[in-house]
Amino acid sequence: MREESPADPPTAFVPGHVTGFFSPCPDDDPERAGSRGAGVTLTDGVRVTVRAAESSADPTLTLDGDSLSMPPVETVLEGLGVADRARVVAESDLPLGTGFGVSGAMALGTALAANARFDCERSANDLVTLAHRAEVEAGTGLGDVVAQARGGVPIRLAPGAPGHGRLDGVATTRRIEYISFGDLSTADVLAGDTAPLVEAGDAALDSLRERPTLSELVAASRQFSRRVGLRTDRVHETVEAVTAAGGEASMVMLGETVFALDRGLSDAGYDASACRTCAAGAHLAD
Amino acid sequence: MREESPADPPTAFVPGHVTGFFSPCPDDDPERAGSRGAGVTLTDGVRVTVRAAESSADPTLTLDGDSLSMPPVETVLEGLGVADRARVVAESDLPLGTGFGVSGAMALGTALAANARFDCERSANDLVTLAHRAEVEAGTGLGDVVAQARGGVPIRLAPGAPGHGRLDGVATTRRIEYISFGDLSTADVLAGDTAPLVEAGDAALDSLRERPTLSELVAASRQFSRRVGLRTDRVHETVEAVTAAGGEASMVMLGETVFALDRGLSDAGYDASACRTCAAGAHLAD
């Protein structure tokens, strides 16, 4: 049966996700909290395998071979009642903390793989909700999990987990390039005055709903990042260089990271990574 | 740019979809009409390419090389305002009219590919809504389109297009086998007394929500098909043979067709087709 059911131990693939613009939507209920906004899921992502502990000396979580602690992953395992038994091994194509949704991917991938490994019998929506709550409670993300569960080019119309949030999407596929110069703290940005974010984010969402194309998503994101003043010098210079070369690029929320359509970064002379928009949302690997 | 943007002319892939059980939910508004129920999307599906007409002698639609008329496809093209210009070329892994959602796949694939070809700038939800409406109005399907847009193993909690319907899913991947003996008329079944369908369908949905696994989906579907009396002799015999061999199978709604998990049909001696659950919902091919 090994090749017919999920692999044993089960592995989940979760696409990376870069947000172009967003409006934070806090709520006392973490299932209703989240963000409006839009972004792009990536064929570069995170593979998360969950197996049963062989000894108590096993680290609970490793990412690319290094043992670490990630509160959202631990919260998900506790929510499934398997925190004492599960060992999580993750491999990422993308760096942590630079705006690619790696933390959300770890939480969601852990939920999918642990559910399969320990026969928890939770529905897909329940697992997405568990991971979304854990991310919001940890303060590590506001909208990556629901976007990563959908795949494609998600538009977050209303915040929150399944049953609360509402999603749409840009119906396309495209080559995406990206380059990262470092991290920015999501917590620091959200601790400041968020009214300008909401105003600029909602204006960007209105533009995209009016014209739901990838070019409009990038243009609205560029305007958003200019208005909210989060661009570092390196990000500003890079986005302008891509634009000057005739390409389309914007800043990733939140990282010192730039994403571009097609060969936008390469054509402007940058040594960028390349992947595509990811047709499939988070799923168990065959 | 050919390899970076959607292929030109654009091609959409739409997974096949077999429904295991359902409750029809008619409504005067075709966006609210549909069904509750559950099923499985398939890596076997339909590829739909849309190009501009070269001459008025071009057939509007071909399926596997044969020219034919399909009202839902024509309605979708009219909804996008391109009925006079679009030519649709479809290739299917699955037979038409036997419960695999080929008609829904044609409508949804046409919406995705025509939107890309003619820069219609519709959102993903708008395109799914257009295809769902067209299917409901033509009487060819009640829930395939929204399930095919989602992918995976969709549970239809509430009927209707995006914004009205609600979906969940079984979080798994699996090998699926199927065998078809012929067609059954959806219209004939829905023209009869549908109260027993609703009663049996809602009981099956309650069981699956209680325990959202593929085994439960197949068991609930088997009980549904027995209760509603739609099994033909050949279907009944096949499902019983798979069960006797230790496998899990049920009837496809609506076709004289049986689907099974893993190698259920092969192990019972049938010459079945095989594929897998499809992680991705309907999407443009790269």
Give a structural overview.
Two copies of one chain form a homodimer. The first copy, chain A, is of the alpha+beta class. Chain A has a single domain (1-286), classed as Ribosomal Protein S5, domain 2 (2-Layer Sandwich). Helix content of chain A is 35%, strand content 28%. Chain A has helices at 71-79, 102-117, 124-138, 144-150, 186-191, 195-210, 214-228, 233-244, 264-267; strands spanning 11-25, 34-52, 61-63, 66-67, 86-92, 153-158, 166-170, 175-182, 249-251, 256-261, 273-276, 283-284. In chain A, strands 1, 2, 3, 4, 5, 6, 7 and 12 form an eight-stranded mixed β-sheet that branches. Chain A has a four-stranded antiparallel β-sheet with strand order 9-10-8-11. In chain A, helix 1 (71-79) runs parallel beside helix 2, helix 2 (102-117) packs across helix 3 (124-138) and helix 3 (124-138) packs antiparallel against helix 4. Chain A is globular and about 55 Å long. The N and C termini of chain A lie close together (11 Å). Chain A binds chain B through residues 1, 3-6, 112, 115-116, 121-127, 151-152, 155, 162-163, 166, 168-175, 209, 211-213, 262-263, 276, 279-281, 283-286, and chain B through 1, 3-6, 112, 115-116, 121-125, 127, 151-152, 155, 162-163, 166, 168-175, 209, 211-213, 262-263, 276, 279-281, 283-286.
